[in-house]
Each structure stands twice: as C-alpha cells, then as structure tokens.
UniProtKB/TrEMBL annotation, chain A:
PROSITE patterns: RAB, RAS, RHO. One of its GO terms (molecular function) is G protein activity. One of its GO terms (cellular component) is lysosome. It comes from the Eukaryota. The gene is AUGUSTUS-3.0.2_15698. Its cofactor is Mg(2+). The lineage of its organism: Eukaryota, Metazoa, Ecdysozoa, Arthropoda, Hexapoda. Its EC number is 3.6.5.2. It is found in: Cell membrane; Cytoplasmic vesicle, Phagosome membrane. One of its GO terms (biological process) is retrograde transport, endosome to Golgi. Coiled coil: none annotated. This is small monomeric GTPase. InterPro entries: P-loop_NTPase, Small_GTP-bd, Small_GTPase. It comes from Tribolium castaneum. Belongs to the small GTPase superfamily. Rab family.
Automatic annotation (TrEMBL), chain B:
This is BAI1-associated protein 3-like Protein. Residues 167-289, 984-1115 form the C2 domain. The keyword Cytoplasm applies. One of its GO terms (biological process) is exocytosis. SMART domains: C2.
Amino acid sequence: MASRVNMRPTNKNTLLKVVILGDGGVGKSCLMNRFVSNQFDEHSFHTIGVEFLNKDIEIDGETYTLQIWDTAGQERFKTLRTPFYRGSDICMLTYAVDDKHSFRNLQMWKNEFLYYADVKENVQFPFIVVGNKSDVEQNEREVSQIEMETWCTENGISACIETSAKNASNVHDAFAIAVQHWLKLETRADKNDCIYADTVDLTKKQSENRTSCCINTSDE
Amino acid sequence: MLCFRIQQVDGGFFEKFGNLLREHAETTENRESEEKRKVEQIAECLRSDECASTDTEFVASSGDSDNEAKSLSSDSEDEKDKTDLISAAFNFSLNGNVPRAKPRNNFRGVKKDELRRQTSMYLASMTIDELYAEILYEILHNVGCDVSVEIGQTALISYAQDAFKIPNNKHNQLLSEAEKKEAPEFLINVEVIEAKDLKPKDSNGLSDPFVTLYLASNTSHRYNTSVKYGTLVPTWEEHFALPISDNSIDDTLCIEVWDFDPAESVKEKFGRFFDVKGVKGMRKFVKEIAVAAATGQHENELIGVAKIPLNSIPASGLTMWYSLDKKNKATRQGVIKIRIAFSAEKNRQVAAQEHRHMLRIILLHELELSKVAQFWWCGTFSPQGEALLTQHIAQSGLTPPEVALCQWSVYTSVHQNHQLSFSLFSKLLEKLAKPLRSEEDLKIFWDGAKKLLPSCFSVIRKIRKRDFKDKMTMQQLTEVLNILGNIKMMEMPADVDLFPNNMYPWVTFSEDTKRDILTVVADAVQQGADDWFNHITENNVQQVENDVGRLQYLIQAIQLVKSDLQKALEFYDKLFQQTINFQYAKALYVFYQAKISALAEPDVRNICKSLKKLSFTGFTTNETDSNEPLKEGTTLFELYLALHRFVVLGKGLCQTDSDSFHIRNFYQWFHGGVAQWLDIAVFKALQRIEKAVELDKLVPVDTTVRYSSSAVDTISIFYQVKVFWQQLNWPDVEGCYTFIAKIIDDICRCCVFYAERMAMRVDGMGVQTDEKKFEVTNEWCLAINNIEYVRQSLQPFTDELGMEGVIEKLADLKSAMEAKRCQDTLNTVIANAIDTVKNEIIALLETVVKKMVPAMKRLLIEGAELFNQDSNSIDRLMLYVDSNLSTLHNELNEENFNRVLEIVWDNLDGILKEIIQSNLEKRRPPSFFANLHKTLNLMLGSFKANDLNCEELKKTELKLKVNGLETNDLIHLVHLNLYEEFKNLKESKYGVLSVKAKFENNNNLKVTVMNARNLLAMDSNGYSDSFVRIHLLPEHKFSGIPKPKTQTHYKTLFPLYDENFTVELPTDYKSVEDGLLLFSVKDKDMLGYNNQYIGEAFLHFKDIDSSNTPMDDLPQISLALGRPTDLSTEAIKALESRLGDKQAKEFLRKLKQRMGTS
C-alpha cells in the first residue's frame, strides 16, 4: 500500500478482485500470506469472515494490483463471506491434496460463488483450482493431480495448479496463472461484449483503468 | 426540491433505512404508548366478546357440565331450576316432600366424595325439612340479646321459609312441630380470664383470689376457680359451662371474687409476722390472729361481685371487663375479664354439617335475592340471614375456626357456580391458617381449596380481559394471589389431588411433574399468554398478502406482545413477586420469546432468502420501479429493530438466563438479509449517485463552500448507510467486523462510481470550438472538489462505523492476534478505498491537464517560431495558461492544485521533449530552441508554483537551453561542464599540475606553469615527454590571442617547467562570462606530429588573483588533470545533432582525441 500513497498517481495498474474459496483448513490464508508477504505460519488461526490484502503482480510487463479477499471456510461464516463475492474478477477454488473431502467440496464452492457473485450463466468466469499442501508425503496424499485435472475439465475450468504455501512452491505461479487466465477471458469478452458497451454497468468495480466495463458480473 | 427528485430515484431508500429507521426507534416509546391504547381497546373488545362465554367456561371447568349447571347460567327464572340450584348446592337429595323437585341420584363427580363422606355420617338421612325444622326451633328459642330485639321472630321465620322455599302447609306443620318441641338445653360458656386492680385483703398487702360463679336462679350450683396466691392481678383462663333453660334469658350470671383464707394456726400466722406490711396490714394481721384464735377456723373474704344479666349478652357472645363491687363499699374493688358465649349441646360435626347446609341455602337465597354480580359478594348477609346463622352458631356451639371452615367449604363450593369476592376467601384463609384441624377438617378444607383454585387460576389466566386501570382488578388479583400464597404455605396432605385434570382443561399436565400452586400458576400464566398470543395472531389480520404484509403483521404482533409485557411489568409483576414469589413478567417473557421465535424465524429466514431474487431482476439505470425489495427491506429491518428491542427487554427481565433464550440469536435469521440489503444498498446508492450527478447544476451549494449538490447528496447516502448500520447495532462481533469491511468496500465502490460519473458529467465542458482550445471551467474544479469532498468523508465515515469497538471485542472474544489481523484487513480496505478515490481525482486532474495540452503545445510552438516577431502569440499563451491555472488555483484546494501543477509539469515535459525532438530532426537553428526556452521560462513564471519541482522538466529545460545556444557557446558550455567536473577531482591517474596565475595592469594575464607530478607514462619507456599548452576560452572571444606552451621535458613524470607567460588580453576580457584557462598537457611525439594527450585542467577567471600581490607571494594552484569522459551530456548531444556545423564537428573530433580514445 505504501507505494501507492504518493502524490503522483504511480498506480495505474489494473485492479483485480480475487476471492479465495475452499474448505476450512486447506490453507487459503497461508496461500495469501505466502503470496503477499512471503510468510508462512504453520499455526495460523481460522479466518474470521474475511481478510483482505493487496499485492502487485507483473504479467507480460504489465502490473496488476490484486485485491485479494481471503474467506473463512467454516460453514458458520457462510453468510459473512458471501457478500464479498460480488464484483470478483477471479475466483480461486482451493482444496488440500491430503483432504479428499475438501476436493469433493469444490463443486459446492463453485456453485456458492456463482450464486452469490451473480455471475451470468453464459459467461465463462475465470476460476482457478488450486490444490494446496503439495508438500505432504506421497502416502498422505488423497487427491492426485490427474483427478484435479479431470475435475477441472469436467467443470470447464482450464486453470489449475498444485501449490504448497509451506515451501512456497507454485504459489506465485498460481496467482500469475489466475491473472493470465483472466486476461484471456477478458480479451475474449471484449470482443464479444462490446456491443453492450452503451448500457450503463453499475456493477463495475473500482478498476478505473480497466479497458472494458462490460465483463462477467454485468447485469445487462 | 433537488433532494426530493433524487429520493424519487429509489423512493427514499436511504432515508428509510437511515433516518427513518432511527426515527422509528426514537418514536418507539410514543408508538408503544399508542399500542398500549390499542391493546386496551382490544382487551375491551375481548371483555365484551367473552363476557357471555366466561360463565360457560367456568361451568365447563368445574367438571362434568351437567344440566343444572347450564341452567344456572342460562338466566332462566324457572322455579324448577331454582330448586335445582338449591339441591345442587345442597348436594344431597331432596326427599319427596318437595313435589316439583326431581329425585336425584346422580351428583357431580366432584361432589360425590363429599356426598359419600356425608352419608357415612349419621346425617345421611337428613333432609331439608329436618334442617328447616331445626332452624325454626332455633328461631323459637333464640339466645342472646340482639336478634329478637332487632328483627323479631316473625321476620326471621318468614325469611327462613323464603330461603328454604318451604310451602306454607309444610311450614305450618314444621313450625307447630318445632313449637311443641321441648326447649333446648343451652349452655352458657364462661371463661374467667383475668382480674386486676383487686383490693388487697391479706396482711401482706396482697390477696389470694379465686372466683365463684353461679346463676342467680340457681345459687346452690356454684363453680369455683383455682386460687391464685399472693397476687392482685390473677390470671385464671378457666372455662365453665353453666346449663341454662329456655326461660333463663332473664337470669343473671354472678361472678364473685374471693380472697382465700386457708386454715392456719395462730402459731403459723405469727410465723408470717415479718411479712406483715404497714399499719393497715398490721391491723389486718392482728384481726386475722384474733379470728383464728377465737374461731379456730378460717373464713374467706369477699373481694367483689359482678352481676351480668344474660339478656345483655348477644347470641354471638362477648368478652368484657366487668367491675367488681361490694356492698357498703363505694369504690370499685377491681375489674375482672370474662368471656361469655351461648352454646347448645350438640355433636360438633353434626352442628358443623348443619351449619354448612344452612349457610349454603341462605347464601344462595341471598345471592338470588340481591342479584349480586359475580365476584362481588364478600360475606355480608342480610340481617335476617345473619341472625339465623348467628343463632345456629350459638345454639350449636360452633367455634370460630369451625365456622370459618364451614364458610370455606360452602363459599368455595358456591364459588364454582357463582363467583364470590376473592377477598372473602383471602380473609377466611387467614382465619384458617393457624387452627389445627382434624383429618376430617383438613379434608373439608382441601376440598374447598380444590373448588376455589380453578377460579383463582382463571383470574390469572384471564387477566387481560380486565381493565388493568380498574382498582377492582388489582384488588381482586391481590386477593387471588393472597389466597394462592396462603394455600401455598399450607401443608397439603399427600392423598389430596388438588389439581384434578378435569378441572383444568387448559393445562397440559405432564404426568411426572409434581403439581403445586406455583407450577399451576406458571401454567395459568402461560396459558393466559398463549390465549393472548393466539388472539393477537388471529385477530391481527395481515393487511396485504405479501412479504411486506407478513412483516408488518409480525411487527404488529411483537409490539402487542411487548406492550402486554410492559403492562405486566407495570401493573402485575410486583404483586406476583411479593405475594407468591412468582416472576410473572419473566414467565411471560420466556413464553413469548419462544412463541415469537417460532412465529417470526421461518418467515424472516424465507424473506431474507427471497430478497436476493427480488433485488436483481433487471436492474438498470432506466428502471426505477424496483422498490419492492426496498420496501421489504425497510419493513424487514423495522422488524429487526422490534426484535432487538424485545431482546433488550428480555435481558433486563431475565438477567441470568436470557442467554439461553432462542430469540437471543434473532439476528442470525436476518444474516442473509443484511448481506443482501447491503448489496441492494450499493445498487441503490449507485443509482442515486447517478441521478444526483445528473441533477447537479454544478454550482457551489453556498458561497462558503466549493462543492456542489451531488457531493452533498452522495455523502448523505453514506450518512444514511452509517445511520442504518448504527441502528442495526449488530450483536455478533464477527458479523460486525465483516459487515464493516463490506460497507467500507461498498462505499469505496460508490466513491469511485461518483468520481467516474462526475468526470463524465463535466467531460464536454470548457471546449471552445472557435479557438480550438480547452478552457478550465469552474465546473471542472467543482467536479474535482466534489470528489475530494467525498473522499475526505471516507475516513470519518469509517471511524464512525465503530471499528475500534469491534476490534476490541474481537480481541476479547478471540485473541489479540486475530483481532490484529482483522484490524489490518479493515485498515487495508480503508486505505485502499481512500487511495483508489485519490487515484480517481488524479485521473480527473490528468484529464483536465490533457485537455489543456494541445493548446499549450500549439502556443509553445508558435512562441518558438515567432518569439521575436510576434509577441502577441506569447501573450496569448501566457493568458491561456494563466487564466486556466488561476481558475484551478482559486477553486481547488492546495493539495489538488499542487497535483495539477505536477501533472502540468509532467505534460509540459512531454510536450517539450516532443517539440525538441521533432525540431532537432528538422535541424532547426539554435534560435528556435532559444525562443522556445524563453517561452517556457515565461510560462513557468506564470505558474503559481514557487519552485519547479519536477526533475524531468528541469532536465528538459536544460536540453532546451543547450539546444538554443550557438555552437561557440555550446562548446564553451562543454568546457565549463568539464571545469565543473574536474574541479572536484582529488586524485588523478593523469597527474597533477601546479600553476600560478594573476591578472596584471588591466589586461595582462601572467601565468607560471611550475611543474607536474605523477604524470601518466605515455611512452613505452615508462616516462612521458610532456609539455603544457595554455588556451584561453571561450575560444571565439579570444581569437588571435596566442596559446603559449612550455618546453618539452623529456623522460620524466615529474617535469619542472617553471616557465612564466604573459598574455596580453583584449581590454574587454572582463566582460567575457565564465572565461577559462585550459592547460592541456601532452606527450610530445618524436616527430611532433602526433602528440598524445595526457590530460587537462581548467582554471576559471574568477579564481585568478587580480590584486597587486606579487606573483612570488601567490600560493601555487594544484590542478588534478582530467580527460573528458562523458559524451552523453546535453551539450555534446546538441553539438552532435548539428550535423552540418563544421565547427561542431571539428570540436567533437578534437574532444574525442582529448578523451584519449582516438
């Protein structure tokens, strides 16, 4: 943040709102903390409702500011986290590779997101599936990479990756892939949706430098 | 007006949520008082509604509702029914002597027990006739002074006949039978209680009193009390029963108090000699001894007599002090307290039984006669009735506790059909509370209690049907509670079933719980509340068949319940607590909270769920009719507030266990609703902002401020959101935290949207088509100020959301660390919001400046082209920039104006770079750039900034300046740069040169080249063959001036030149700016053809001494040698760009040699 509070409008980056979803304990907060501050705390607490952090990331020479909303996975926080889905640009669906149940719940998370984010049905939303805790011993692993890829294919999600917040592997990549994926869909959406550009889109998020105003969550 | 139009966008959405909601809260009290009134009205209508049904209900509650009971309530005046009533009350069969009476074998279940008990007694065969005969007999043989005097026998007899409804022939028969009957054996019960003020009769000043009593008609039959020795205030408390005959009414009871004189020998008397007190005592003592000695026997002495005529004693008896008199003595001899009562020798139980029947008959008769209302009769009979009963009590010898028990039994029984005043029972209970009773009496008592209790509980149940402002209501409740309290304190025999199921159809008894007064009170209270609640839910009709209607219905229900609770608190609770230690209001609350939860929760949850669906159906800016979810949301949160207040009430009422109430977590029902509402709020806000911007006339709202209406409107939206949030007062801290995060994020979104809209609004403004330039208008400044104003509201806004408190609570609830994380998140979100909006402002400022750029660029170019010829264009440029900037300066705050300046510098820099580049490419002469430079300086001067704060622009300006120089000047600039560069050299690998120099005689320059040290070895032999040449720069100013050089010193790195030179300068040398001496040290080539450059040093004219100091006295100057290294300076770049300039080309060629690179 400090870098942005200058007199000069140094930050002309595109702002992207990223929501991290997944069962409690799969390591959402750890992923975010690893990505944002390169820290890892084995004994981190349960997230209360939501947490929020900013992080700049450079993709193809362009800097994007990710506004990352980390959510609480516990069921009792459902009503507290869902209000934050609306206006998201990227949704990161997470599970832990040593927790089959968290993997099975991906479907639920995806549905919850689509419902509360009010994503239009025919719009392809940039989901990325992240299998965290890839550092676990092979014998503790319950979900294979193939399973993940299969599930993603079946659900029309083209971005997926295994990460370890603990040893930092692939964490940055996960976010980078997410942004690239968004870019890809964004470009496509630009081409497709520009005919709607004359309609006022009140759901438009705070990305003032966004080239387009008619993406995913628009209500037209 | 404007405001109104904006509100129209969404039907006053935010006002409803913020202010109106708050107003709702503030006016709650008023409204609730109004509700109270409503409640009263409802209660009123309830009372009248159910007045008729009350009776039937009581009948029903008294057991199997047989015909008699129903006929009682049906107001039929039929004689038969009346008889039925009596027989019902009487509880046993009328015999065939009453022709119209139905033979009756079936009695109410409740009373069968009593009947059985009665039959077991000898009275089984007793009939009304017999009782009546007994009554007549009693009337004929009245005792006491009162009855016959005041009322008269005839009146009594006729009253009795009416009460018993005995036909005349029967009456006459029975009367003659009674007359024939022998007069009854009465007893007069006398209790000798105590005496005082007795005259002393003994020599010791005391007496040994005892009492003898007898009837004047029968003096031989005397009764004596014990002797109380040595006292003048004896207490006997002894009972005597003196038989009297019917005609002894004129008799007199004689009470004699005697001093006992025991048979005592003279010797014994002398033994008491020393006990004798006073002269009088001594005289008595002497007399006693004399008498004892003379007669040898004792003689008791009379203290005094009281004569009581029996006709002065009332039938109910009396207790009184009588004075004791003695013949021949005028003074009172003392007073004695006597209790006298009449009684008949009767079997006590029989007498009690008779009395109960009689009491019942007389009571029913009187109730019938007086038509006294339900609950009113409180124990007062007509004089006749009173006389009959008193006579019976007296003639049967019933004791007050026995009478009370009879009354208890009869009144409770009658009460089942005709409610009597509760105060009656309350008083009876006080009388009955203490006396020990036989098993039989206990049975009678509890039987009565059993009959009485249902109506007591009924009063509690139906408390709402009465006017709580009526004194009577409160009084009645007090009595009822007293009754319950008294019964509660009594020990109930184990075999009594006080609460038979059939008498409590409204109680759902569970089999295993023990029933006692308190549990049934609780049941009654709950049942009453339940009835009320059902009444509320049934009669409080939902106005509209939709969700809003449903919500309003719920709100109304809660308010009615709440006002019931308040009423309970205000009027009844204290009474319940004090009398029976029952927390009435709390019990009500516990019940209501569960009911309300069950009623409201499913609806609330459903409606919250459906909010989403409703809110996002085709939301666009054109559509303004999406007010349905809004209305629903408003009502929903009114309900929320109503529940909130209800819960707060509960916390006060049930401090210890309110945490266990289901309703405590009511807010969870609304969870989805709040989230959805916040979402809706964002959309509404955006909609409203759009309208506000559209309607904004872009004039300051008043003369003191620099923002316009849309900023005020936007902030008022935020304000309403805040007020709403404060009103919400969300109890769950985790929820608070996340909702705050959400609100801040949303508000940020609104700010950004506002900024965008504002920018769009002013976008087309200020363009002057005729002059093809953009004019900064006040509107633009207002737009920027508006956004700034909105931005500045963000921090205070977030502060007022109560973040700090939430974080503190989180720290308590969770851990300091988690609280810290939440705090960080909120701070980040806020900082993000503020920053994002700031970027919006900057973006807008950039837009403004960008719009100025073309005009600025055009004017700059014109200025450069025509600087000297046409000063008009410069003026126009200045005017343009000046007016725009002064507008900005006047209208914007300092921060934003400084931002504008920065952006202007930035853009100016861009423009200049572009102009320079393109014109260099065009090989424009230096004058072009010089003009441009002048133009720029003029322009900068007109800016309001004190310092040029932009490094980039400074560089560009330099570039411009350099490019504006003629080649000669440019070359000299290169040298000056080198001078500046070398000046700071401390060490040099090329060597150090020592010189002295001074100006002499106006125009002579004297230079001494002294030596060089550590010269760079240029030759393969490790030495250099060096010499020094002196140049005067700038060269074109000193053309024709010789450039002297020293001798070459071979093969040394430490040449000692020690040569003096005198150069004659032009007289105007002093006018040369920045004149330099250049010492170039070279290595002489063998052939003198290709000298190598070792290094060079500069001496600025200003550093050369011009005083009269002799050369020898001047300090020598050490100059570290350097070589040019940097070809990238603006000056060199400018020279390089002058491709067709031979001088420049030549200079650069030589410069490269000097660099030693060629």
